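dumping this here so i dont lose it again. seq + smiles for zinc ion
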Amino acid sequence: MSDYRLLAPETCKKLFDSDSLLPTTAKNCSTPDSLFPIPAKKLLDSRLLVPDSCKKICSTSHTPCSRFLQKNARLPSPRFRLHTSCCVLQQEYANSNRFCHLIESRDVTLKRPMRGVARLRGFGVKANKDGNFNSGKMAPDSKVNEETVEHKESKETEYKTKIVWFNVLLFVYLHASFCYGIYLALTSASWKTCVFAYIYGNLGGLGITAGSHRLWSHRSYKAKWPMRALLCAFASIAAQNDIYEWCRDHRVHHKFTETSADPHNIKRGFFFAHMGWLMCKKHPDVSKKGKNVYLEDLWADPIVRFHRRFYIPMVLFFCFYLPTMIPVWCFNESVWNSFFIAGLTRYCFSLNMTWLVNSAAHKYGDQPYDKYIEARENAVVAFFGHGEGWHNYHHVFPWDYSTSELGYTLNLTKILIDFMALIGQAYDLKTAHPEMIKNRKLKTGDGTRMKSVEHPEHELCIQS
Ligand SMILES: [Zn+2]
Ligand SMILES: [Zn+2]
């Protein structure tokens, strides 16, 4: 147990100042506008923070975060109106949560000794102003603490991937159908069926990007019920779980990115992040940590509740029946051709395009806004994902409805939302200020895309 070292967050500035190994983190920790991933990254290289005290990091050592937490115990609140500073704070809150989880994950696996600080055991240890450690609520050598850690460790190492063979067979069949659909498209189907399948697939994609993702998951804009109903129908075309479940997984992904609690953790490999995560049982941390994710705002929306209740019939109708029958009714296409091309091939293709956001956009591309996270700017994924490939930006500014600073470049979803705003269906569109983007680039970017190309068309964080 002597391998586990603890630092007291509330005095981290003093500690870091006194620690020759981490001279720069001291400044980051104490600067109000600093962002967590920088010190987190450096800290995790050599030491651990007390998991139980993670909140203290926010409440004591991080001034704006503290203000934010005091005002908003639960996030994101539907009643909470974002304003300029809170946009930053919301991001910092998300970062700090991820930071805490990273620490929690690492504190049971890191075993190498630390240099430059006193050796400590157990949780709840505090450091005084001189950088010396005193026991806090729990004694450093407490057996309970050791058992807790050992229990955690065993749970961590015990986890083994359990394959869900039913899902494996389902995806094998779906991809085989995709190949057969391509064969039919090239040999016997009408070109009109192929064009229809492509357009219909894009509608489904927009249901996910503009609806499940930017509207419901991130609340990056608001929409009147006709638009929400339309997006709900579009999301049924895509059939990627009901809106509630999709948003839950996605919020967990953002909150615990690149940890064991991330449903499609890129650290487990490209294939796992792409589709492997749907073929095996979830890591226990996904469910455990996922319970803390706020979802009440979703449940408050009757359209989300409706979609969850009638998900199966809606998918059967919008994802399979309608795309099969429209070419039959309109172009005299055979049901067989239509089912495989506009039904299964279109469905399989759109699934893979969405999955690319979780895999390719977390592995290949630049990191202009935060080089300490795996999310990347990927133009190919942006093209096929209607703008979702600008993923480094999205993870840094998840509340921005356009998910990029590049305007309409490879961003069909932004075009749709802007059009809907034009006809009064979408409102309160939130977007990041160029200064904020620039500062972030200077602070944590990898040096690419240093020139912004467009100014936002909307006021920063419009209040309703
Ligand atoms: Zn992501
Ligand atoms: Zn997102």
